[in-house]
Structures are given as structure tokens and as C-alpha cells.
Amino acid sequence: MRNVLTKFWKRFFQRKTIFRNMVTLSLFAAILPVALVGIGSYLYSASAVQSEVNQSNVRILNNVSSTIDSTLDRIQNNAIQMLLGTFFSSNLAELKSTNYAGLYSGISRELSSMLGGNKEAADIAMYVPDEGYLVSPVFGGRRIEGSGEREALLKEFSTPDQFRWAIGPYPNVPGYNTKGVTLIAKAPILAKQPIGLLFIRIEETLFQNIMNRFISYAGEEMFILDAKGNLVTSVGGDTVPEGLLQQVAQKGAEPRFQFTSKGTDFMVTPITSSYNNWQYINMVPIHQLNAKSNGIKLITLVIVLVCLAIGAVVTLWGTRRVYRPIQNLVTLVRGEQAQDADTDEVGFMHRRWAELTSTASEMQQQLSDQLPMIREIFALQLLQGRFLHYSADQLTDVLRRYSVPTDMESSVLVIAFDLPPDEEGGRKRFQENDRDLIVFAVKNIGSELLEAQAMEGIVINLLNDQVAIWLFQDAVQDETADVKAFAEKLRTQVSDYLRLPVTIGLSGQSERIDELPELYEEANLAVRSRMIVGGNQVIANAAGGSHADLHYRYPLEIETHFENSLQLGDRDEAVRMMNEFAKGMEAAIQKPELIQMSYYRLLTAAIRTAYMLGLDTAQLFGTASADPYLHIRQLSTTLELNQWFEEQLVEPIVAYVQGKQTQEHDQLIDKVVRYMEENYHFDLSLDQCAQICGLSPHYLSKLFKKKKDVSFIEYLTKIRIDKSVELLRTTDLSVSEIAERVGYQTKNFIRVFKKHIGVTPGQYRGGADDES
User: Is Membrane included in the keywords of this UniProt record (predicted)?
Assistant: First the structure.
């Protein structure tokens, strides 16, 4: 025995840990109290079990029924509250037609909120039959493709029930093919034409988890049946024993009875839920009810474990106060790494420090390997003008961080390739999905040529099937010829390798980094001009010289302002922007192809705006087959172009936007009037109505005056006076009571009534009422 204890002692303290030694010594001091607590627990359990066994069955079922019923009732009430809420009470059909994305965004938001507040639900989804689309915060959005599922859901949609619970799997909705219950509701509730079906899925495991919390005996079985006798779920048995339901029906209101199944005698306790008429049946083996000793042993074991845990906590609390500084340091350094058995904390920290040093070196190497990609991303953002708001010092710091020279002259090359429709023999060398591969090849050829020519630059993937090269040259001597030679050599190599027509747009040169976006725009314009001057060549910047000679720049800010004016329905501002756009074209008066390309771009922006507003292009150009780009090529002056834009684009888009605004304004004023007519007897204010409509009080006041020809207060006063006249004529209420019903104090009511009617309320009625 002594040898065994010695072996255990050495094994337990084998690891060299300061904290383990301290804890172990303290734990031995807690053994005696734990033993005393264990004996006391055994004696106490023996006396307590006998009194509780006889009442356990009924209490278990009542708790299970109450828990499940309250869960189902809460989920159903929450669903009703959601369907009666602001979003589903709004005009969803109108929202769907005016803001399609907003409808599904709102549905997804409501479902996510509902799911977050009802953790018992496995999934909450809504099916929109018109779209065949199912929205779920768990499974995301999907379209129901199966004809059988869609027909079943349409049949469910046509039923008169607003709410119902479906028992078992519900295969019509993906992911609902397991056991459980599903709440199915129309949305919006009580609507004449609901737009969708709400599904709230509760998995069988929820009920089983609730039931398992109340299972107390080995071999105990519990069943839940719906009002029709179908099995909802069970614990301890997959099927209801044969003859059990018949005996439950025969026993009627008896609280419990005995039943024999498979040679085992059970004590059966059935109850029926008043909430949904579900029947809960509990079956406990009778021999388990009599096995008191087993229960006492279990309780004693639990008590001993609890006492051991308490002793461990007390021990840890005492020793941790001494060990805490060492523990904090070891935890900081250790992370997730395990400590060796033959080292203590100090040795472990030495080893961990060496590992951290090695990891830092590896991360530094990885950063160095990724630096070219980071430089490329930075260069792309610089070309696109993302750093124009930086000061000179800030920009210089960023350039140094990415190893970009700041004292050299820059130029930009843009490389574009065109895929021919067919090659000889009707076969294609490249397919459309090979564009990424082509761009990869162009980047490699450009990088190799830069290295071979001993030139500095960054090769950039423009993410539009084109590649740019930002070149740095010494600003002391003119390098224009070298850049052009480099561009021609690069074009030749790429074209020969790919056997495709390749065009390179070449910008001017500039020593200023903040002018790099303009150089990039020059190269882009040069590449785009291949549609006019022909491709498969090197095309210099449009001005034909240095950057200082090129004065034309596409007025992007005017295009943006023009789009905003169309979206707001401001015709005068849109026409003014067209005139400003025409003035901007004066810088390219000697380059008619640039003017034409600029108007192409402006036309694309206008068509995009019309499409975003929901306006069909057939309403703009008459027929769907009309080609507006072809029509632009037939116009010769900017005046003709502006007139055509105004007639074909500005006028119909502005009219469409203003029509929508007028309709929305009418609906808002009607909503305010209805609210006033329903709440005139309260202390109603313009701020309250403005908050309901989502407008500012000042804007609502102006809009109300415009639509009704009277102010908000005047219209509210008219409603109240008209109602008071009706009450004076048809009721015997006193003037004070009438004043209170229409939202006035008595004195103010008499004064306002006389101002609008010409006589006091008492005089109007005939002098019979007391007006004081």
C-alpha cells in the first residue's frame, strides 16, 4: 500500500509547476470537510427521497405542459405582434412596386428581429408566392424551384386560416423536413390580399430538451400527442405502446393508473393541455419508484462532488492570490501552447520567447513577400485619385512607405486587348472566361520587360480586363522617346505572344504625383480612341504632346450634378448642367471624337439614372429598337446635342419624377388628414404629424398649405368646429363637454367658435346652454 501511495505521489507531482504544488497541498486540507459533508448528505437524502417520490409524476407533467404551452403561446403572440407592427401594417403591395429591394430588406429585418427575440425557434422564414422566393435569416434568400413545393405552398396560401400549427415535418419548405411543429400565418394578418406566408419552425429537440429536464428515472418514457392523436414527440420511446391510448380514454379523468408494456409495469399519468388540447403522457417504471437507495446514492454522489468543487474553489482562491503575478506573465506569453512536463514557468517562458522571436521573423518575411501586391493596390488607388485629399507631406510619407520614388517624372501606359469573334477555321484561341488568364500574361510580360530594360515602374491590374504601367523616369533628361519605344516593344511582345490585337494608350509626363490621375485619364482616353483611329498600335495622349498641352478633362462633377438634378426632378438645374457640359467641351473643340465620346458617356449616365428611377427606355426614345448612340453620331453641334438631350431625356425623366413626387405628396397629405380626423380631440401638433410622415415640420407646413390652400392649424380648427356644430345639433351635451370632446378648453372653444361661426355655441343652439 505504501508503494502505491509513493508511486501516486511521484506521478502527481511529476510536472514542475509552482501553482500545482501549492494547490495540491491545499486540497489535502479540504478532504476531511468533504467527507463529513458527504455523510451528512447521505443521511439527509435518505429521509427526503421517501416524501417526494409519490408526487413526482403529476408535477413533472404539469411543468412540461406549462413550459411547452407558454413557449408556443409566446411565439404565436410575438408573431401576431410582428404582423400587426408598423412594417406589415403598411401597404406592402405598394412598397413592392416602388421599392422592391426595400420590401425584402424590411422582411429580412423583421424576421431577424423576430428570430433574435425567440431563441426557441429554429428558423423563421417568409415565402412570397408571386416571386416564388423564400427569405430566411438562417438559410438566406432562395427561390423555391420545385413545382410540387410551390403548388403545395399556393394551396396553403389559399386556405382561410390566418394561423395554424403544422405537426411533424413540413417538406414544402427547404430545411423543414425533420420532426417538429411549424406555425404558419398569413402576412399581413387579416389582409384581403396577403403577400406571403410566415413560417416559424420549432424543432423536435426543443420539446425533447424540455422533457429531458424533467426525466427522473431510468426507463421513464414521455409522449406528447396532438388533439388528433398524432405523435408530436417523445422521450424514452419512439412509438406509443399499443393499447395505451385506448386505456387513457377509458380511464377518463383518473390522475394515474398502471399499465403493462413489454413485460414492465408502468405508472401512467396523463394530462390534457387547455391551451391546444395536446395530451401529455408520462410512464415511469414502478420498480424505479421503489428504488430509493439508488436515488440516495446518486444524491449523495452529487453532494460530494459539489463539496469537492467548493473545496477546490476555496483552495484556488487562497493560492491564486500568491501565484497571480506569475500566472499573469505565464498566461500572456503562453497563449494556446502546452507546457512541457519537465520545465517550470521560468523554463517555459525562455522557450516561448524564442518561439515568438522566430514567429516575428516569419511574419516579417511574409510581409516582404506580399509587398509587390500591396504596392500594386496602392498604385491603383493613386491612379483613381483616392489620395488627392492628402497634403504633400502626407503623400510623400505614403510613397516612401511603399518604396515609390518621389523625385522622378511619371507617365502611364494603359494596355488593352480585343478578343476577335473567330479565328481561321471558325475556332477561337481564347474564350470570354479566359480574360483573367490574358491579364495575368500581360502583367508578367510587362514586369519582365521592365526588368530587361532596366526601367522602374509598377504593373497594375485595373480590374477591367486592362493593365496599366506606372513608369518612373529621371526628370533631368527627356525620356519621351524611351517611353514610346518601351510601349511599342511591349505592344509587339504581348501581341505576338497572345496573337491578339493589342492597343497601348500613352499619357504625357509630369513630375507632380497629384497629377497622376490626370495622366491615367489621358492614357484611358487614348485607349478608348482606338474605336475611332484604329487599334493594334501605340496611341499617344489626345493633345499629342506633353501633359501641359492637354487642357481637356471630362467634367465628371458636372455629370454627377446632372444625374442628381434628374433624380430630384429639377428641370432648370438639369438644363443648366447641360449648358455647363457644352461649355466644358470647348477645350476639345479640335477633337470632335472626344466630344462624341463625352456625350456617349453622359448619355449612359442619363439612361442609368432613368433605369434606377424605374423609367423604361421605350418611354424615352419611342421604340425599344431605337439606337440613341447612332442618333448622337448624326448631330453636328453641341447645341443640337443639348436640344436632343433636353427633349428625349430631361423632359420625360423630370416629368416622371415630378409625377411620382406629386403622387407621394398627395398620399402623405391624405395620411395627415386621416390622422387629424381620427385624433382631433387630442392636443394635436404639426410636429406630431411631421414625425408620422417622416418630414420636417417646416416642409410639411408648406406642403399642406400648397395641397389644401389653408394652413395646418386652420384645417384642424375647421375639423373641430364642424364636429362641434354636429354635436350642438344632435346631442344635449353641454358646451363644456363639447369643448372637451373637440380638444379645446371651454373659454378658448367659445372664442374660436364665435370667430368662425359668428355667434357663441349657446347662441347657436338657442341660448339654452351655460357657456361658462
Answer: yes
